[in-house]
Design goal:
87 residues, mainly alpha, 45% helix, 0% strand
């Protein structure tokens, strides 16, 4: 029985209009303050919530009531927003 021919596949090269541009490689790295600020916001948010719960809702600001939770979680969400821009 004859042996079948082995075809060699060509290496795929995408068309020039579909190729990714070099804009991704030309982006500048993130500034040094960005991750530092993000970590500081996480720590501040967690610290705010811990103080709020351990003080039985008297501190950090008693008049704010449950809005203290919004401040703590808001700081942590803001840090996520900063970290989403980190390269």
């Amino acid at each position: 029985m004859p042996k079948s021919q082995v075809r060699k596949k060509k290496v795929y090269t995408p068309p020039t209009d579909v190729r990714p541009t070099t804009a991704a490689s030309s982006r500048k790295p993130s500034p040094v303050w960005l991750p530092i600020t993000a970590v500081a916001l996480i720590v501040a948010g967690i610290g705010w919530l811990v103080v709020y719960y351990l003080s039985e809702q008297e501190y950090p600001v008693m008049a704010w009531g449950y809005w203290n939770l919004a401040v703590g979680f808001g700081a942590m969400v803001a840090s996520l927003g900063l970290l989403s821009r980190w390269r």
